[in-house]
Amino acid sequence: MTDEQTPPTRTGAAVIGAMLILTGGLWLLSEAFDFDFWGEYWPFVLIVPGLAGVIAGLSPARTTGAGLAIPGSIVLMTGLLLFYQNAADHYESWAYAWALVAPTGPGLALWAVGYRTGDDAMKKGGRVMVTIGLALFVAGFAFFELLLGISGRDFGQWGSALVALMLIAAGLSLIVRRR
Questions:
Q1: How many CB atoms lie within 10 A of CB 167?
Q2: Distance between CA atoms of 117 and 126, rounded to whole angstroms?
Q3: Disulfide: which of 25, 69, 96, 104 matches 133 by Cβ 3.0-4.6 Å?
Q4: What secondary structure, in 3-state letters, does the chain show?
């Protein structure tokens, strides 16, 4: 059966089934070996299925794959962000880090699918989304962390100067590209 012939309900049931098996298996292992998986590594419950979605979307067997790669990238980016936030105890970063989940995650998926299929318009759209997402992330970081100090972390004079230089470079890049 090709990708267009696979009923969506079968694919959805398989994904949900795999997620339930993964969750149950991790729970069982954490109980059997007495380690706190849920305290440290719970974001992998999102990382693994998200990565599976991205890989399935980029599979050569699929004609486009964007339908799996985009939601997979959103779930994967959310899991990676939560893994960082959990490890660093830096949940305040949600104020600006959402820009890495979307539009950056779907932009990366579009670019990758466009690259695999040779679709230049999809690659360009993906690059634009990634650029917008990263610009929103940097601007949000500068505003929330450096100006407001929401996390209470001190990035020092060099950290502030680096972000200021990045903002200047981003602004110059936008102006130069318009010409």
A1: 15
A2: 13
A3: 104
A4: CCCCCCCHHHHHHHHHHHHHHHHHHHHHHHHHCCCCHHHHCCCHHHHHHHHHHHHHHCCCCCCCCHHHHHHHHHHHHHHHHHHHHHHHCCHHHHHHHHHHHHHHHHHHHHHHHHHHHCCHHHHHHHHHHHHHHHHHHHHHHHHHHHHCCCCCCCCHHHHHHHHHHHHHHHHHHHHHHHC
Task: Output the furthest CA–CA distance in the chain (Å, rounded).
Answer: 63
Give 132-176 pLDDT, tens digit per residue.
Answer: 999 999 889 888 988 888 988 887 778 778 878 887 888 898 899
Using CA atoms in the order 53, 58, 64, 67, what is the torsion angle rounded to 10 degrees? 10
Separation between Cα atoms, residue 22 and residue 67, nearest integer Å: 23
In angstroms, how far is the first alpha carbon of the chain from the final one? 49
